Amino acid sequence: MQSLTTSLQNSRTWVQSTDERVRMLQRKLYQKAKQDKTFKFYVLYDKIRLEYFLEEAYYRVRANGGAAGVDGITFAMIEKEGIIPFLSKIRDELTARAYKAQAVRRVYIPKANGKQRPLGIPTIRDRVVQMSCKMVIEPIFEADFAECSFGFRPKRSAKEAMKRVKEHLQEKRTQVFDADLEAFFDTIPHDKLMLAVQERIADKQVLGLLEQWLKSPIEEDGRYTGGKKNRKGTPQGGVVSPLLANIYLNLLDRIVQNPKSEFAKEGVRIVRYCDDFVLLGGTISEKVLYRLEQILSRMGLRLNRDKSRRVNLWKESMDFLGFTVRYARTPYKGFRNKFWNILPSKKSEKRMRQTIKTIMKISRHTKPAVYVKQLNTKLRGWMNYYKISGVSQMYTTLDRLAGYLGETIYRSFRRKSQNGQSRHYRQSAYKKFICEHGLINLYKCLDVKAL
Known about the structure:
The protein is α+β, with helices and mostly antiparallel strands. It is built from 18 helices and 11 strands.
């Protein structure tokens, strides 16, 4: 393990070697699970504590970044003291069955509606063990997950989810129930979740790790809540939480897709991205909705009545995963045909405008190259998310965004000029930034290749 420190810093060879070894084992686990749908895995804990699994787990956690947990230990502190001793200590604890999960630090992040979302931040030590565990058990459950599930899964994304939505719409499944689960991550029942996990995992040591993370105390402003008495919920922010969410909601996917279910008999399909999902069909009857509520109630979950709604997409639009879906007239002159128009939602466009405004505001006293780089990073990521070839349309959105960006840059340098600090005012700063500093030209970014 002596080469680990230098490899983490610069070497692609280390990344490839550990990643390839992990993937080889994952493929074997996936193939076994795929071949035998009833097989239970009894010996997995020894794989979680393998040196190269922990090494790869650290690398992936480090790449995700994130703040320190309740112990205050950061990545910089770990790398200063040495990564090798840090991972060796974790491995020794796992080998001796002495590993104990620490409390989760709770913070709040703002939501688009003005409310706050609770986020649980485990310690880096716990995140590394969770990542190693996730890498071991994820391929097993991937063999069972339904094709209608797209959130937090390898090689799947919101783009594939929106492609599937458009396919269903083109099949005349235009009656939609847009569902929202109320406080999903906070209400998952531990006992029922563990039963779903035990359909595949029989290794008591692995099950013990998962239960530890589910029952970790929550630290908030110096006060601790939860712990062993906690019976429901998994903290958002935990590495393993999205996988556990998919394992639990796979029960819903299986029922909806069962050919003998009321959903299948009425031609209803589901598209799910973690806890956000829509039902699409020629009709969405009261019987189907009643059955859905029955299933969720048995799972210990409930619909958010304020956010869940039935939509006739022939007449109304729907927002899903940051996209707006509507049946609209083609923008080309001479054509009167309508088509399924999928484009960035007004909320997502508003958030992008706020991001541009914030970058320009905090960058008033820095060189153009600095905030051009920040703008390009945000703009490129935003466009890569919303541009789906053959599915989404971004022409009008990018046109508005380009106008806003140019106006924001103009106003910023006009303010500077009043203090005698600007050379770009009245010099077409937006065009100069594109030509001289490499700012993305939004008018030329309608092709995916341009990104």
